[in-house]
Design goal:
The structure is a homodimer. Helix content of chain A is about 45%, strand content about 15%. The first copy, chain A, has about 425 residues and is of the alpha/beta class. In chain A, strand 2 and strand 3 form a beta hairpin. In chain A, helix 9 packs antiparallel against helix 16 and helix 10 packs parallel to helix 11. The longest helix of chain A is centred in the first third of the chain and has 22 residues. The first copy, chain A, is globular and about 60 Å long. The model of chain A has no long low-confidence stretch (mean pLDDT about 95). The interface between A and B is large, with 60 and 60 residues.
């Protein structure tokens, strides 16, 4: 490993035609094509390549791909060992590379690209250690784990010493939790039945299929029309019964007063949470909603762009369920910072994973959280959504409503050659065959 | 005007080699090349072209240019009159175009691009009305002004009715204030002397030059080294004396505790404000700093990415000086929303204008604020920085420490042919002549 250096970083534009079936449709995103900005890190060793992703919904994915190449320039020629041994510092350096920082900082297109690049570095890290990424994290002594994190801007609520204590106090039970989660899988909920563009009949049929497959928890999209939403909620409760978990997701459609008003009507369906009721930037607005609708919780995080925002959501009690996304945050590194703050504030982490690629990445975050950070499964569920598993070499697998713990080394987001040939944009066969 | 339609929107990459002289250097941005992502809207009428900009500091400017083209696609073929008559709705539509929204929302590369596009539409608007943009705004009846604003996500603190009242109560004095500001200019401060990369001798020399030109207010960059900062502050107070205004700008270099600690040391230099003490996303952190260092104020806003963030800064008392930037926000439209909230919370607006292009745009915001929104100059100063005036057809002009009210129709950010030939990137003569 000493002499391996990074030779090139490619950014590839890969898009899946989900808009043809309305998979993925919600109140704000009516016809998305789920897409990946795919980072491929080549080294001087032919059998060591890092694959990382971030997720978008179609147009503009090329902007993220171009930004991946910008960050890539900063890593080419460096030793892999030095990067991995100083990952927190390298993260800080890249995220603070000033001209790209100006375009954020730590948000938007550039931060999405940073996520893809750092996720690819974690993939490489796992391969070098011959472990899946969750296991790399789970096996790190607390001091090593702190070294992959940039504490800049969060030390006023979480010092390194506090973070160390959080990790040290759960160090003892790691082996037992690893065994348990391997045997039982990580609890999950499905979003596959509840996309907004589905007809009522398709909704009923999908709910029945998902229940038959063992799912106990379901998320449905709301926010386009209150009367349609209430009708759909009636159908859903009818189908799933009173005891299964039901979560609502408005995808930022509402103002604060509208959110509170809708939840007064929806309260009788006993939802676990309302997700993204308003602007993802509105910390104080989420706090107002949370106060008004308790004991129903507010869930948000998939568009929460960095640890500074999460810090404030936690400080304000504005988020009862933390839906961080390691592809929106600056990769696994910044996700670990958020896991630690969530542990301090005792907020359960239920990552955003309702699409291809995301499910593959976030399973590592949730499993590592259980083994090494929060040490708890209480109120925790990892989102799952079907689609395009065959495009991945090692897709995430859910059985009986639970993610199976992945064993492939690295992050497991490598695409198959067939998948790349089909979905590369705009030259892939799916995009040139006249379907689009 | 009825039949004029938009034919094409070009995005151009224009970069100025400011890093060669260390103009623009600060604690976070050590060697920026001040750059413009330049939007040019062509219509079916040969003498009507809209020019808009946003500002970056070099690498990655091309990402914003590409995003301008993405938004441009959504406007081509539309009637100019329909866009201008429904500008608030068109703004909402473009900013919420879902695949690009996913890359923000309303932040980062895509929102910078939206700013350039809407600023170009305002340029066109002014040209059609034969007025500079500040005058277009100043002459709007309150109801018309509200129609260019998207109130989504801010109505919990500012309803349309409240906004109407704010505008209506100052309607009477508009003509007098217009006459006054034309006669006296808009008060300004200069950042040109205080860049971090300058030597002590250059700092002294520039301060003397600026005082000789009539400047009464000076901003200096801090944040790289506390001991250097204190030494420079001693020099500055020695040069400018006890009565002239001195502002400090840390460009986000610090954590919250570091900011408070530094300001304890800097207090004896009686600064008006500390600008960007920490992460621009840290509303609660800024509030903590503001509480600790009062009566010195906290100034921030140049990286505050949308009206939802400003809303919370105002709610928390976290910002005593509002430094909005109409090129970071989604153009003039969103800036007007922020001006109204600032008026409600009685926070003075001192826009971010310390660079080429920015000074040309923000003068319209400040002058319109004085005439039609806040109706006050108290604690208000508009930033000014020299550089590359000759590249603009109608550069902003400061005389005796005050911006002269511009009279050219539109926004006044059109570049000269010579300027474009020199600074277009990478093909301009300044970039191909071996200087770079």
């Amino acid at each position: 490993m000493q002499d391996i250096t990074i030779q090139r970083i490619k950014g590839l534009d890969v898009r899946f035609p989900t808009s043809r079936t309305m998979d993925g449709s919600d109140a704000v995103n009516r016809n998305p094509d789920h897409s990946l900005a795919y980072a491929v890190i080549g080294t001087t060793v032919s059998n060591l390549t890092g694959y990382g992703i971030t997720f978008t919904i179609g147009r503009g994915n090329d902007l993220v791909v171009d930004a991946i190449r910008e960050y890539g320039r900063l890593l080419v020629g460096r030793r892999v060992s030095e990067i991995i041994e100083n990952m927190g510092e390298v993260w800080h350096e890249l995220v603070n590379y000033s001209p790209l920082r100006w375009l954020g900082p730590e948000k938007g297109v550039t931060h999405l690209a940073a996520a893809a690049v750092f996720n690819a570095l974690w993939d490489m890290y796992g391969k070098l250690e011959h472990k899946p990424v969750w296991k790399v994290i789970a096996d790190m002594p607390p001091r090593d784990l702190l070294n992959v994190i940039d504490f800049h801007y969060i030390e006023d609520v979480l010092s390194r010493d506090q973070a160390y204590e959080l990790l040290a106090r759960v160090e003892g039970g790691k082996r037992d939790r690893e065994e348990w989660i391997k045997a039982h899988g990580y609890p999950s909920y499905t979003t596959s039945a509840g996309w907004l563009g589905f007809s009522d009949d398709k909704l009923r049929q999908l709910l029945r299929e998902k229940m038959a497959l063992g799912w106990q928890s379901f998320k449905i999209k709301v926010g386009a029309s209150a009367s349609d939403d209430i009708r759909r909620l009636e159908i859903i409760r009818e189908e799933v019964g009173p005891d299964r978990n039901l979560m609502l997701d408005a995808n930022q459609a509402w103002d604060v007063p509208t959110a509170i008003e809708f939840m007064r009507q929806a309260n009788r369906f006993s939802p676990v949470w309302i997700e993204e009721p308003t602007s993802p930037d509105d910390i104080l607005g989420h706090a107002k909603i949370a106060q008004a609708i308790a004991p129903v919780g507010v869930a948000t995080g998939e568009h929460c762009h960095n640890r500074v925002m999460f810090k404030q959501f936690f400080e304000q009690g504005a988020m009862q369920y933390c839906q961080l996304d390691a592809c929106r945050l600056g990769g696994i590194n910044e996700s670990l910072a958020v896991l630690l703050m969530a542990a301090k504030y005792q907020v359960p982490v239920c990552p955003h994973a309702g699409a291809l690629g995301l499910r593959e990445v976030q399973q590592h975050v949730s499993i590592a959280d259980y083994i090494a950070v929060s040490a708890s499964l209480e109120d925790r569920m990892l989102e799952y959504a079907d689609g395009f598993q065959e495009a991945f070499v090692s897709p995430a697998v859910a059985v009986n409503g639970a993610y199976q713990v992945p064993s492939v080394h690295g992050l497991g987001v490598e695409l198959t050659d067939v998948g790349l040939q089909a979905y590369s944009y705009p030259e892939g066969s799916e995009w040139t065959s006249g379907n689009s």
